Amino acid sequence: MTSNDIPGAVIAGPALWPAQAHVPSVLGRQLVIDRGEGSFVHTTDGRRLYDGTAGLWHANVGHGRPELAQAAYDQMMRLETYHTFARFSNDRAMELAERLAGISPVPDPKIILNSGGSDAIDVACKLARRHWQREGREGKKTIISREFAYHGLHAFGTSIAGLDFNREGYGSASLVPETVRVPLHDADAVARTVAEVGAENIAAIITEPIQGTGGVNPPEDGYLEAVQRICRENDILLILDEVITGFGRVGSMFAAERYGVSPDLVTFAKGVTSGYAPLGGVFVSPRIWQAFYVDSPDTPVLRHGATYAGHATAAAVALRHLDILDDEKLVPRVAELETVLRTQLDGLAERVDAVADVRVGGFLGGVTLAEGLAADKVTDRLVDLGFISRPLRGGTLQISPPFITTDDEVVAFVAAIEQAVVDEANR
Ligand code: PMP
């Protein structure tokens, strides 16, 4: 009864199509979360699990925060939202943008708001091309990204994906034409690629400061500065994708500060609300926005917008969430947690044969398993032990707990990872 050529029966399952899943492998064993408190979540079948990934790297202030529910309630009782097209705006979106401008990794920014990280990436890439088109340099369209990069899955994010499987199946090498990938850590390769493609054809280089889904890959010393230098020397825009790293995850508000780079565009999402409302956006530098703010009938219009751009309830939640980061001093706390995590992971690869490598950058860790060991089996074992991790590229386990976690919980999580790896290796 299948309508394609794969032998086998079609399995009936719940109406919700699981994201990023080999569907038959997950049906019947889905972990359905129905409640969260702090660093823990509960499943509908009665498990209580430590959220060692903060969901998809988003739940930084932890789950079940009444003050954020209250902020959403209060805003909805006044105004759910109003759009921000043309003459219209709403007070919460305006207020959030001012607040974000005050902590921006880009000096004197304008801020474009939308609904998440993939949205933000599409805006940043469109804006990079639009910038050069407006300057009369229409040739500058190519976007260079890194191997194993993840920049969401809208049209541009799909097209610049460094994880090839995310780009495949849409009829050409990339959905949006003129994208190029470079190796992960190699600044010389970036310079060579720029020379080959020609600076006159390149709009932007985009990079995650610490690559997340690609396996938690912090930048090698000097890498981001070198890429920035190449951008400056060749009149190429630098886009930093801080969807994971933004709002404290690396122990500074943004990774741009920690690594001393000054990008032209910075994308953010997740950590702006810790997931209490879908929100993302882009910090835009004056070099790009000023042309759209000139007092002249000839000033161009950026033809971009969305119904929920600057959603008032999402903005109200973000404002309250930024208070929490400040009031509870969570960003300096992340710096402490990074040290705890480093101490726990130190020597793990030497001690345990089944661990090939360990990396830490901010409060983000990656544990890469030795060849032959299946990361998804290890994460299944971890669930049995009461902990959530996630398999990333290259057999790597994700470590990114909420910022409100305790030192002891981090110690317990790393111990559980070690146990799960050893259990699986001995199976
Ligand atoms: N960029 C990076 C670096 C990400 O990690 C993600 C999401 N994991 C995205 C973009 C896309 O964000 P979203 O899932 O909110 O669309």
TrEMBL record:
Cofactor entry: pyridoxal 5'-phosphate
Pfam families the UniProt entry points to: Aminotran_3
Keyword entries, A-Z: Aminotransferase, Pyridoxal phosphate, Transferase
GO molecular function ontology, one term from the record: pyridoxal phosphate binding
Record's keyword annotation contains Zinc: no
Sequence similarity: Belongs to the class-III pyridoxal-phosphate-dependent aminotransferase family.
Cross-referenced PANTHER family: AMINOTRANSFERASE, AMINOTRANSFERASE CLASS-III
Protein name per UniProt: Aspartate aminotransferase family protein
Organism per entry: Pseudonocardia sulfidoxydans NBRC 16205
